[in-house]
Structures are given as structure tokens and as C-alpha cells.
Amino acid sequence: MTAHVLADTGALTGRSLRHVLRSPDTIITTAVTPIALMLLFVYVLGGAIDTGGGGAYVDYLLPGILLITIASGIAYTSYRLFLDMQGGIVERFRSMPIARSSVLWAHVLTSVVANLASVAIVIGVAVLLGFRTGASVAEWLAVVGILALFTLALTWVAVIAGLAARTVDGASAFSYPLIFLPFISSAFVPTDTMPAAVAWFAEHQPVTAIVDTVRALFAGDAVGSDIGVALAWLVGILAAAYAGAGAMYRRRTG
Asked: What is the mean pLDDT of residues 49-59?
């Protein structure tokens, strides 16, 4: 049974990835806005921001930009799933002897691959802007793991949006608050520079813990308790979104 599910998921993921490869502009488009924000903050606003660390501002900035990249990219998952639901592809798949869960997992795995490709592009541009890291191989693997888990968790949120949407615009609009969330975190400025109420929110929302963890890993510093908080948030979001998406999918497909 497990082999059957894996085979079906692999086949449908291959289908979705071929669609992405035929239209690589989706990956490039996902990277354009974060790169533009990075250029803006590094060359226009960065000189006026004191992060208290003494390093290059692009080093401080990059973790938040990577999260924005992923938050932007998952909208395509919601959009593609919405088109499959509306176009009758899902109904056609249901008439075939394939595992029901493989339809959603194919979209999710495609999202992880496509978004990590966009992240790689953004990191490449950051290097050109002066980003440097003292991270070891193990720390780089930890960064990739956290970003992949972040992508996986948000993609299941995107699946819920794609299943619930009634219009194309509605399928992708859910991502706007997720893109905005890093701006009220430690992604761009230290939280202790914010007004008390804003600082409290910034310090207790998931993005700050994730950003601080990735920043510490890039710097080769100890991550402290931030990584535990970040993983707790990500696993909690993933579990809730996965359960919600599964329930909604069963309702939509009968």
C-alpha cells in the first residue's frame, strides 16, 4: 500500500514539475520581489539601520528575505491546485486507481522543490551584494532543513486556500498577510527598536524565532532556544494545516 502511494505521488509530482519546467518564469517571478526588496533595504535604507551587530546589513537581512521568497512562492501552489479543481483534473484522477492523497502531495512536493530553487537564486544575488557566512556544512544543512520545513508548513496552508477559493484571485490572495508578517519581526530591524506593543507581537510570532535561528546558523553562532521555538511553531502549523487540508479535500471530493 505504501509503495502504491509513493509511486502515485511520484508520478503526479513529475507531472507538476514538468509544468514548472515548461514555465520557469514562475520561479524567477517568485524571486524578483524579494530581490527588489533586498536591493532597496541594502542600498537605500540599510545605511540608516543599526542592527547592533557591526556586520554587513545584507547578512542581517537575508533570512527574512528568504522567508518572504517562500511566502510569495506558495501562492502558485494554491493557484495551480485551484485550476486543477476547477478544470476537472482532480475528478479525472478520482476515476483512476490512484491514491487520493497523492494528488495533494504532488502539489506540495512541487512547491518545496520550486521554492527552494527560488531561495537558491536569492542567495546567489545576496552573495553578489556582499553576503558572507561562516556556516559549516552541518549548519547549511540545518538552514536548508528549516527552510524546507517552513515551505512544507506554508504549502499545506496554501492547499487549504486553493481548495476553499472560488476565484483565481482568491486562491492567491491568502499569501499577502504571510508576506507582510516578516516586516513585523526581527527580519529587518531588532525588535527592541520597536514600540512596546509592536515589539511584544514581533517577539512572540513565529517569523522572529525562525529568522533568528537562520541568522545564527549563517553566522556560525549558537542558536540557543530560538530553534526549539521555531520548530515548535513550524511543526504545529504543519500539523494543523495538514489536518485541515485533508478534511477540506475529503469534503470537496466526496
From this structure: 76
